[in-house]
Amino acid sequence: MEITVYTLDGCSQCTYVKELFQRANVEYNELKIRRDLSVVDFKELYPSVGGFPYVVIDGEPVGGLVETAKLFVEKGLVSSRKK
User: Fold this and answer.
1) What global pTM score does this model have?
2) Strand 29-32, strand 3-7: pairing
């Protein structure tokens, strides 16, 4: 599974999605907006995206934290049960 996550500095949801990846024990590539990619370049790639983080898995757009967490639960990579 090839995961790319687009993030912004100071974004709490971005921190949470990276914690989700750690819980699922999956590797990911992080591209920081304004450091690795300009806002303009990101908008050219994904014109309809309005927020961060933005996750792409195996070349397919997934969405933000909520969509990624739902997908990981469906795939059995993490549990939705609270400890």
Assistant:
1) 0.91
2) parallel
- 17's CB contacts (< 8 A; 6+ apart) are 5, 7, 53, 55, 64, 65, 68
> If DSSP codes are grouped into helix, strand and coil, which group holds residue 18?
helix
Domains defined for the chain, CATH in brackets: 3-74 (3.40.30.10)
Using one digit for the tens of pLDDT, what is the confidence trace for 23-40?
999 999 999 999 999 999
Q: How confident is residue 80, by pLDDT bands cut at 50, 70 and 90?
A: confident
The alpha carbon torsion through 3, 41, 52, 33 (nearest 10 deg) reads 90
